[in-house]
């Protein structure tokens, strides 16, 4: 899977939002991996929510409620 944001851009965005932090060389990779883990967790939670409601398709409401649950757990 290719990246849509370059490593340099990601580093610049992190540095702009948190200028006082010192970043190591692989910080952008860790941010990317963290994002992928979040997406996987969101997909699993959403699928569980859709199955619990006996829905054959995942709807916007399922994703929204799952995101709220994940935000509360984190």
UniProtKB/TrEMBL annotation:
Keywords: Centromere, Chromosome, Kinetochore, Nucleus. Pfam families: CENP-W. CDD domains: HFD_CENP-W. It is found in: Chromosome, Centromere, Kinetochore; Nucleus. The keyword Nucleus applies. Belongs to the CENP-W/WIP1 family. PANTHER family: CENTROMERE PROTEIN W. This is Centromere protein W.
């Amino acid at each position: 899977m290719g990246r849509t944001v370059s490593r340099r851009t990601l580093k610049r965005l992190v540095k702009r939002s948190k200028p006082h932090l010192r970043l190591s060389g692989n910080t952008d990779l860790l941010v990317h991996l963290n994002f992928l883990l979040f997406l996987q967790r969101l997909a699993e939670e959403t699928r569980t929510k859709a199955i619990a409601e006996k829905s054959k398709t995942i709807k916007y409401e399922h994703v929204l409620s799952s995101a709220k649950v994940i935000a509360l757990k984190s």
